[in-house]
Amino acid sequence: IRENLPPGTLVTTLRAVDADSGAFGELRYVVLEQAVGDPSTGDGRDAFAVNGSSGELRSRLTFDYERAKAFQLLVRATDAGNASATVTVRVLVTGEDEYDPIFLSPSFNFEVPEGARKGQSIGRVLATDEDEGVDGVVLYTLAKPSPYFAINQTTGSIYLRVDSQPQAGAGRAKREPREMSLEVQARSPLPASRVASAQVTIDVTHTSFGLAPD
């Protein structure tokens, strides 16, 4: 069952089979105590209700994946002769993407050091997500591809795609400060993920990035 659905949501229909015909083949269903043996699950007695005649199992609560991810309960089917059978039901709660990723800062500033080489990391962005499970996994991408920079999608590390290429014929004193901007996006791997963005400003003074060749 997905989190945040209203109470009364149908989870499944339980059905036991009795070979008797007539009244002795009619079954009544009831939820018993929590099944023993799995301390990681919540008690299903208060969380679910079963229709005594149809076997429909419905939620009694609105579930929060961040608080409880599974429930386990025992359901008994009894016929008119008091013969019975039980079944263990395990209900898994699935998450929704409820929270936006949040960057630790709305903007980041890095510098390409003099003589930096292809593959060298120049800085790292970081975002967090309060969702749990897959919805809480953060992946990083550049909003627009760059010929000079790339980002590691799992670590958020920004690295050089090319050597820094010092500006030919320019002495240290003659270099004019130059900057480039990137937009980094954070999202989960799922298609309908929430997305957050941050601006990255990179000092490229010690490179020939973006300059026309001599």
TrEMBL record:
GO MF annotations, alphabetized: calcium ion binding
A Pfam family: Cadherin
GO CC terms of this entry: cell-cell junction; membrane
Gene Ontology BP annotations: homophilic cell adhesion via plasma membrane adhesion molecules
SUPFAM superfamilies the record matches: Cadherin-like
Main location: membrane
PROSITE patterns: CADHERIN_2
Location of region: Disordered: 169-194
Positions of the Cadherin domain: 1-103, 104-213
Sorted UniProt keywords: Calcium, Cell adhesion, Membrane, Repeat, Transmembrane, Transmembrane helix
Statement: the UniProt record of this protein carries the keyword Transmembrane: yes
Localisation: Membrane
Keyword Thylakoid: no
Gene3D superfamilies (UniProt xref): Cadherins
UniProt xrefs under SMART domains: CA
Domain of life: Eukaryota
CDD domains, alphabetized: Cadherin_repeat
InterPro entries, per the entry: Cadherin-domain_protein, Cadherin-like_dom, Cadherin-like_sf
Name by which UniProt lists this protein: PCD16 protein
The organism of origin for this protein: Emberiza fucata
